[in-house]
Amino acid sequence: MKENEKHLDSNQVKKKIRERYKGIDEGLLDFIPARPQEDFFTSDSHKRVAVYARVSTDDPNQTSSYELQKNYYEDFVHKRENWELVDIYADEGITGTCLKHRDSFMRMIEDCNLGKIDLIITKSVARFARNNVDCIGYVRQLKAKNPPIGIFFETENIYTLDPKSEMALAFIATLAQEESHTKSEIMNASIEMRNKSGIFLTPRLLGYDHDENGNLIVNEEEAKTVRLIFLSYLYGYSSQQIANALTELDRLTKKENSIWSPGSVLYILSNERYCGDILARKTFTPNYLDHKSKKNNNDRNQYRQKDHHEAIVSREDFFAVQKLLRNAKYGNKGYFPEMPVVKSGFLKGYVVVHPKWAGFTVDDYYMASTSVLDGVNKIPSKPLEVKLEKGNIDLRGYELVRTQFISTMGHITVSISPTKLLFNKPSLIKLPDTKKIEILVNPGQRLIAVRKAVSNSRYALEWGRYTEKGFMPKLISGAAFIPTLYKLFSWNMDVQYKINGTSYKFGEDTVLIFSVDDATLSIDKNDFDPDMESDGAYIAEKVTSSRRRRITAYPKEWADSFGEEYYRTKAKEDQITKERQEKELESGHVTYSAEAGNVTTPEKAANEIKGILEDLGIDE
Q1: Global pTM exceeds 0.70
Q2: What stretches of 144-164 show up as alpha helix (H) in DSSP?
Q3: What would the pLDDT profile of 32-83 be if each residue is shown by its tens digit?
Q4: Environment class of 383 (CB within 10 Å of its CB; exposed 0-12, middle 13-18, buried 19+)
Q5: How many other C-beta atoms are found inside a 10 Å radius of the C-beta of residue 321?
Q6: Domains of the chain and CATH, by start
């Protein structure tokens, strides 16, 4: 019964809808016709017209195209009696995929917003914009104005105020963008082929000209400026001082600018072409749409050729300047590395780390360490011989479980990232009343040592600070020296490491020793990729707790054992105990200086600067 009632109600509703949509007598309505849609080709209304022209390079050969576009569209507008030319907005030597630096284009849009323009004329969609988003976006923005502003693309015969235009415009704009993408890929492939064949692009550079084959040849007059810059920096002047001096001397840049800046000086000081080498692909453009250049950190292939052309400065001087530049970032001066090396005692051969010096290399650490060692530092391991005393338990075949597999609670540890390091609270407790420490490295034995800093040490680091909770660990900044340690230990620069340590007492003094070979990885859980297994040399632990923020990864060689053989571990500890009993914890050190080679000394630089100035007819 209820279903029948519902069916009747439904039929009645449908009947009412049909009656309503029969409409009423047209005689009862007043019809007001819409204004006819303007036809671009036949309209005789007054139009304030803007013309947009663009050529994509500033090559002189493109100038004719640029001028032809301007002349053509001036005639194009003037032929229409009802059209008034507002301006010709022209960008020369600018890409169409990005609006950056397209000053005339942006000025035209601003004039549209100010109500100065009714219509824009341009040659083609590609001339207007090769970026699909920009093209459609500005078309819609201008169409939404009151009154709407149209764009006429002559080649494609598209008028944007035509309701049917957007589909065709979107399609052609996409093709224009893809054409730019294809050109970009072709250009990158061409550059790669040229570089691989040793045919390098050599843009204009102060101190050099190009011969008829495009090879770099020294321009002796300009080369005097280059030598003056390098010698002045080796002497000890800053880039700002050099820039000021060159400006006062009226020395010209390659673009014949007499005003120098520190940036232009630094560009010359860091350019490897002045020592005769060439490094191709120092930068690259990841996105063809925004054309933003990025430093090439092994993202693209690079090619270096030594002695590609005649040098203006020696290779030794060039690399000396590079070390100076790196050190200057951390407020240091001087080039020749001076490294304190412990000359005797328990820490013999350990190199004191300079916390603000970026000029040291892996070779510097090895050379400094071996400079105080007698003979070869590394002794081949011998088969372990175990002699058991009567009544002792035979533990051969047993392993001493690594503490990393159990817990690091209470153990001294240090966490090291590419720019910072942090010691834990137990480490601070082992060196009581110690606010500043020194870090030392033994590269041959792959050990890191920590000791209390000697008075007025230049190498001291604050590793803790006093808080309400007592003396607590403090994060140590190590952007200058840690990257070299990463190279020294063959570590992955994308990863943070954690190392357990051991403390050794020498009377009232204590030293902490950390073995790099016992390092584990500490990975943020959000950054961990289970399929990657870190850098291939480590295995990550299985974590079930959701409260843990970091994951520990262990060396793969640990996978098949709990630790090292018991007697081998005991032999090492016995050897360290013996050395600790026989040797003292001496703080005395000798200074190791890296070989200066043929680098121009400050004294020689001063004489050569004087000679160049006299040659230029300038009195000091």
Answers
A1: no
A2: none
A3: 776 666 666 566 788 899 999 877 655 555 556 677 777 888 888 888 888 9
A4: exposed
A5: 24
A6: 47-179 (3.40.50.1390), 208-328 (3.90.1750.20), 399-518+560-590 (no CATH)
